[in-house]
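Thread: sanity check for a docking pose with zinc ion

Original post by kr_44:
Hi all, I'm comparing my docking run against an independent structure prediction. Below are the sequence and the ligand SMILES. Could someone generate the full complex and paste the structure tokens? I mainly care about where the ligand ends up relative to the chain.
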Amino acid sequence: MGIAETGTDPVSQPIMIVGPKGNVYLPGGKGGGAYIARRHIHMDPQEALAVGLKNGDLVDARSDGQRRITFHDVLVRTHPGWRAEVHLDTDEANAAGLRNGDTVTLILR
Ligand SMILES: [Zn+2]
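Reply from moderator J.T.:
Ran it for you. Here is the predicted complex with zinc ion included:
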């Protein structure tokens, strides 16, 4: 499955959604489909600037819980008013034992 990159449309893959009232098939590409979102952090541009970051930069994020892991190449995405918040794929977060509201340490390059 494709991973969404910055500045480009994610290349989605075909998917069949099966529900109690029927099925929906999405063909992928521009016709809609599924993709794995790249791990990223949302930040306000001024907050990012204060720590020397800008939209499109990459940082690492270290989780210091029981299942200590460092996530590399976390994409910085900025927008006015955004709170600093790391978004990970559910499988990645589960591997680290992370839950919503947990904290990580950003490692700047
Ligand atoms: Zn996000």
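The pocket of zinc ion is lined by residues 40, 42, 87 (CB under 6 Å). Hope that helps with the comparison, let us know if your pose agrees.
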